[in-house]
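Q: what sequence does this backbone want?
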């Protein structure tokens, strides 16, 4: 299929990827065994079953548990390399990976040791696959005490030199979280840190969110994506909107990808980009999201190219680097269309 060939070969940027959800289960299990986790944890077999069956209501607990299995510097390096290989196979050229350092407190490693291990993998990925990786340090909503450390680490010279480009807020939307984190995010802004927020449950109003946090981009779920007034506000404010529609399908919120309002969002001029989020837990990949956008949301090739360009613009890289990458993507996509004799307005239905 010509369009599928195009989607597979087109250059991509992935900026909505979480380290904790990008680790293949097979790798997690091997690392756990190497660290003698099965011998120390009486519930290990139960956790393995949860990895297979994936009860999404219990996902935060599963993430915290499996994060405890990752204990050695070489574990982190290995995981980053495997993530990089998976990205390279999808022709991703640049990625920003969310990493929540406080999830790994039980490892006994300092933040500096964690960052060194992550960057060992990052450098190997770049040398072997020419994929650029950067880090977004995440804080969890239910651990507000962590945000001050996250800001300190992200804004410090070691963090900046170590590939940290911004901060993020993830996790369950606990009551009062906008009040809790407002001061910290204003501090981060004064320090020149870019920020992103994951808003999956839609419990916070976007106008309040934009007023208090001023994020450059927001990753949203079905609730916010389906709220026309919220989308209109985000569009009017030129905020980039990150989407992982397959996640809503996996959770049973919708039956098919086509029910997600991606087509409507694009028609309304929302500055959307696609990401895989936590591919291991939601059984997706960036390329799967791209293909579904063509197959089920009936996007044109040109619209998919624009989504890819939006991801470049929504990234936390510098303006000059964005301009260079955007121009490169435009030229590569045009050459691919010519090679495949593919019209930019092509869809699977025409």
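A:
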């Amino acid at each position: 299929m010509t369009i599928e060939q195009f989607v597979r070969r087109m250059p991509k940027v992935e900026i909505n990827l979480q380290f904790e959800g990008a680790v293949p289960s097979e790798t997690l299990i091997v690392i756990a065994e190497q660290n003698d986790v099965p011998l120390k944890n009486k519930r290990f077999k139960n956790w393995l079953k949860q990895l297979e069956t994936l009860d999404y209501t219990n996902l935060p607990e599963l993430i915290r548990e499996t994060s405890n299995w990752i204990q050695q510097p070489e574990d982190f390096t290995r995981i980053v390399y495997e993530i990089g290989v998976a990205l390279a196979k999808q022709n991703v050229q640049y990625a920003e990976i969310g990493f929540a350092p406080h999830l790994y407190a039980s490892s006994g490693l300092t933040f500096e040791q964690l960052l060194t291990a992550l960057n060992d993998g990052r450098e190997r990925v770049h040398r072997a696959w020419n994929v650029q990786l950067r880090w977004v340090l995440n804080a969890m909503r239910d651990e507000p005490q962590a945000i001050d450390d996250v800001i300190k680490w992200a804004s410090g010279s070691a963090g900046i030199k170590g590939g940290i480009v911004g901060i993020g807020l993830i996790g369950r939307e606990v009551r009062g979280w906008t009040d809790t984190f407002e001061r910290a995010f204003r501090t981060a802004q004064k320090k020149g840190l870019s920020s992103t927020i994951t808003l999956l449950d839609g419990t916070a109003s976007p106008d309040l969110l934009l007023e208090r946090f001023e994020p450059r981009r927001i990753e949203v779920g079905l609730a916010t994506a389906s709220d026309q007034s919220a989308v209109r506000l985000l569009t009017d404010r030129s905020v980039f909107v990150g989407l992982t529609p397959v996640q809503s399908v996996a959770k049973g919120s919708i039956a098919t990808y086509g029910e997600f309002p991606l087509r409507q969002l694009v028609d309304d001029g929302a500055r959307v980009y696609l990401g895989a989020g936590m591919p291991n837990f939601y059984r997706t990949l960036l390329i799967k999201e791209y293909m579904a956008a063509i197959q089920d949301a009936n996007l044109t090739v040109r619209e998919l190219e624009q989504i890819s360009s939006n991801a470049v613009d929504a990234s936390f890289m510098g303006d000059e680097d964005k301009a260079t990458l955007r121009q490169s993507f435009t030229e590569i996509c045009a050459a691919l269309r010519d090679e495949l004799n593919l019209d930019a307005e092509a869809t699977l239905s025409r």
